[in-house]
Design a protein that fits this description.
Chain A is mainly α and 155 residues long. Chain A is 48% helix and 0% strand. The chains are: A mainly alpha (155), B mainly beta (461).
C-alpha cells in the first residue's frame, strides 16, 4: 500500500513539475485600464493605433466597439476575457447574459437607450414573430436553463 | 443547490470582504408599478420592488485575491409579477473568489461562476482555472455542478437534475504570432443517461450535452479581422432512423476597415436544429426533432463622416428550412454632442418575411413582414440626466396574424429623468407607455436608486 502511495506521489510530483515547466513566464495582462474611459463606445485603435494587444496577438482595432461588435462578441468573450475585464466588471455582462433573470434588460436599463438591450417595444408580441423567423436566437439565452418563464406558456 | 447552502456560501463570501483593502459596492433598487388590461382577462395591478446588489472586493490579504458577488431579489407589493403565486424571488448570479497570478495570465476562480471559455455561457457552482503556456499555447478548464432552474409545467424536473449532475469543460488554444488565435474546446453537461433513471416508464428525452468547439480569431493586419466558431454535437442520441448532422453551429464574421472612418462587416451563420438543440430542457419549444437548418448571411457598413457621427447600414438574409426566407434591411445613426451633453440615435429596419401556413382553410397563411422605427436621445449635464426612447412597429398582415389581434401598429415610449444626488447616489424615474396588440394602452412607472461606493475604475459605462 505504502509503495503504491509513494509511486502515485512520485508520478503526481513529476507531472506537476513538468506542467510547471510548461507555464509561460511572461508577466500577466494589466488588471485595469490605466485611464477611465469617456462615455460611449470606445474605439481602441484611436489611441493604440495598429499595435497588437499584449500577449493576445490581435490588434486593438479588432476590439473596437463598433455596432457589429456590440451585437456579436462571443468569440472575443471566449478568447479575451482578461482584455474585457480591464474595463468591464463581470456584472456588466450579467445585465444581459443572466441565467435567471427578473426583468428584460431594456427595462433595467430604461435610462440607457444607447446600450444594446434585448426585448424593447412590447416584446411579448414581437417574440411570437421573431421566434418563428429565428428560434435559435431565443435558445441562446433561454433554452438551456432559464425556462421558467418560457414554460409558463410553452408546455 | 439548496437555499441553506446558498446562504452559507453567501455568508462565507461576504465575511471574506472584511479583510479587503478595496471594496466596490453597487446597488440598484427599482420600484415598478403597472396595470394590465387584457381583453378577456381580469384587470391586474403589479408593484414589484427589485434589488440588484454587487460587491467587488480586491486585495483580500493578498494583492491578487479578490471576491466578486452579484445577485438580485424581488418582492411583490401587489399581484405576483412572476409566474405562479410566489411573491418573492431571487438569485445569486455569481459569487466567487478569484486569484490572479502575476505571470502567464494565470487565474483561479471558485464558487458560483460564469464560464464562457468553451462552446457556451455556462453558470455553475465549481472551479475555473486558466494559464498561458510556453510557445503561445494556453489552457483553461472548469468543472462543478450546473445551475439548473425550476421548469414549470409538465417537464420532469427530476429527470433534468438527474441527468445534468455534473458539468465540465476545457479549452486549449494557440496564439499565432502577430496573427491571432485558434482554440479547441470540449464541454460535457451531465454524465447520467436517461435510461439509468429508476422509473417505471422509460425516458426517451436526453438532457445531457457533449460538444466540441473550434474557435478562431485572425487579425493578420489592422485593416482586417476574421472571427468565428464551429460547434459539433458529440452526444449519442437515440437511433431514430434519420441521418443527423453533427455540426450544431457555424458562425463566422469578417471585418474590413477600408478607411479610418469606414468599415464593412460580413457574416455567415448556420445552425442545425437537431444538434443545436441537443440537451434542451424545453423540447416542446426548442424542438430538436425539427429536421431543419437555420442559415443567415449578413453584412453591415459603418461610416463615420465626423468624429461624433456614425451611420450603419445593415442587411440580414435568413432562411429557416421548414418555413422560408426573411430579408431585413435598415439604417441606424448616432450623433454625440459632448459639449451639450447630448447623444442622439435613430434607426429604421424593414423585414420582408415568409408566410406561415395554417391548418385553417379560411386563413391559409399569414405574413410575418414588418417594419421598425426607433429614435432615442440622452442628456447628461451636471447632476441632471434625461433620456427618451421611442419605438414603432408596423405589421403588414395584422388581419390574419393571430399574434396581432388585428392591430397593425404597435408602439412604446420610455422617458427617464435622473438626478445625481451625491457622488455615490443617483436617483432616476422612468415612465413607459406601451400600446401593443396584447394589452390595451399600458402605463408603467419605475423609480430607480443607484448606489455605488468604491474606487475601482471598472463597471462598464
Amino acid at each position: 500500500m505504502l509503495k503504491k502511495i509513494a509511486l502515485l506521489a512520485a508520478v503526481l510530483g513529476l507531472g506537476l513539475m513538468s506542467a510547471c515547466a510548461l507555464v509561460s513566464t511572461e508577466a500577466s495582462f494589466a488588471r485595469t485600464h490605466p485611464q477611465e474611459l469617456p462615455n460611449g463606445r470606445p474605439t481602441c485603435s484611436e489611441c493604440h493605433g495598429t499595435e497588437a494587444v499584449k500577449s493576445t496577438q490581435k490588434t486593438f482595432a479588432s476590439l473596437n466597439h463598433t455596432a457589429a461588435f456590440a451585437k456579436d462578441h462571443k468569440v472575443q468573450a471566449t478568447q479575451d476575457a482578461a482584455t474585457c475585464a480591464t474595463c468591464h466588471a463581470q456584472s456588466f455582462c450579467s445585465d444581459c447574459h443572466g441565467g435567471k433573470t427578473v426583468m428584460p434588460a431594456s427595462t433595467k436599463l430604461g435610462n440607457r437607450p444607447d446600450r444594446v438591450s434585448p426585448h424593447r417595444g412590447g416584446y411579448l408580441t414581437m417574440h411570437r414573430i421573431e421566434g418563428k423567423i429565428d428560434p435559435t436566437g431565443c435558445f441562446k439565452c433561454h433554452g438551456r436553463a432559464n425556462n421558467e418563464k418560457c414554460s409558463a406558456c410553452h408546455r | 443547490m439548496k437555499h441553506r447552502n446558498h446562504l452559507a456560501l453567501l455568508a462565507a463570501l461576504v465575511s471574506a470582504t472584511a479583510s479587503a483593502q478595496d471594496i466596490t459596492v453597487y446597488s440598484t433598487t427599482m420600484a415598478q408599478t403597472w396595470k394590465t388590461d387584457t381583453p378577456g382577462f381580469e384587470k391586474k395591478e403589479y408593484a414589484p420592488v427589485t434589488e440588484f446588489l454587487g460587491i467587488d472586493a480586491t486585495k483580500l490579504g493578498y494583492d491578487a485575491l479578490s471576491l466578486h458577488l452579484y445577485g438580485w431579489g424581488r418582492t411583490d407589493m401587489k399581484e405576483a409579477s412572476g409566474f405562479g403565486d410566489k411573491k418573492t424571488n431571487g438569485d445569486l448570479t455569481f459569487g466567487y473568489l478569484q486569484y490572479d497570478f502575476d505571470k502567464a495570465n494565470a487565474q483561479i476562480k471558485a464558487g458560483r461562476i460564469v464560464a464562457a471559455g468553451t462552446t457556451g455561457n455556462e453558470q455553475l457552482d465549481g472551479v475555473f482555472a486558466r494559464t498561458d503556456l510556453k510557445g503561445g499555447f494556453a489552457i483553461s478548464a472548469f468543472g462543478g455542478t450546473p445551475v439548473i432552474y425550476k421548469n414549470m409545467g409538465i417537464l420532469p424536473q427530476r429527470d433534468i437534475g438527474f441527468q445534468r449532475n455534473f458539468i465540465a469543460g476545457a479549452r486549449l488554444s494557440y496564439r499565432i504570432p502577430r496573427t491571432g488565435e485558434i482554440g479547441l474546446s470540449y464541454l460535457q453537461d451531465g454524465s447520467n443517461a436517461a435510461y439509468q433513471l429508476n422509473t417505471s416508464t422509460p425516458r426517451t428525452v436526453d438532457y445531457t450535452r457533449r460538444q466540441v468547439g473550434v474557435d478562431i480569431a485572425l487579425t493578420p493586419v489592422a485593416a482586417f479581422d476574421l472571427s468565428g466558431r464551429t460547434v459539433l454535437d458529440m452526444a449519442n442520441h437515440p437511433e431514430d432512423g434519420y441521418d443527423h448532422k453533427k455540426v450544431a453551429e457555424q458562425d463566422f464574421r469578417a471585418t474590413i476597415r477600408l478607411a479610418e472612418n469606414l468599415s464593412a462587416t460580413g457574416g455567415y451563420t448556420q445552425r442545425n436544429f437537431y444538434s443545436y438543440y441537443a440537451g434542451a430542457t424545453l423540447p416542446s419549444l426548442f424542438n430538436q426533432k425539427e429536421m431543419g437548418t437555420y442559415t443567415a448571411t449578413n453584412g453591415a457598413v459603418t461610416w463615420a463622416p465626423m468624429a461624433n457621427l456614425s451611420f450603419t447600414a445593415d442587411l440580414r438574409h435568413t432562411k429557416r428550412e421548414v418555413y422560408g426566407t426573411t430579408t431585413r434591411t435598415g439604417l441606424e445613426g448616432r450623433l454625440n454632442v459632448p459639449k451639450a451633453g447630448l447623444v442622439f440615435g435613430g434607426s429604421y429596419h424593414k423585414s420582408i418575411a415568409f408566410k406561415v401556413k395554417t391548418v385553417d382553410s379560411l386563413t391559409p397563411a399569414y405574413s410575418l413582414s414588418h417594419s421598425e422605427m426607433r429614435g432615442w436621445m440622452m442628456y447628461e449635464k451636471g447632476a441632471f440626466s434625461a433620456s427618451l426612447d421611442a419605438i414603432r412597429l408596423h405589421f403588414s398582415d395584422s388581419a390574419l396574424n393571430p399574434a396581432l389581434n388585428g392591430k397593425a401598429i404597435q408602439s412604446a415610449i420610455v422617458g427617464s429623468l435622473g438626478y445625481q444626488a451625491a457622488k455615490s447616489l443617483k436617483l432616476s424615474g422612468d415612465i413607459g407607455v406601451e400600446d401593443t396588440s396584447l394589452y390595451k394602452k399600458q402605463v408603467m412607472g419605475l423609480l430607480r436608486a443607484e448606489y455605488r461606493f468604491g474606487f475601482a475604475l471598472k463597471g462598464g459605462k
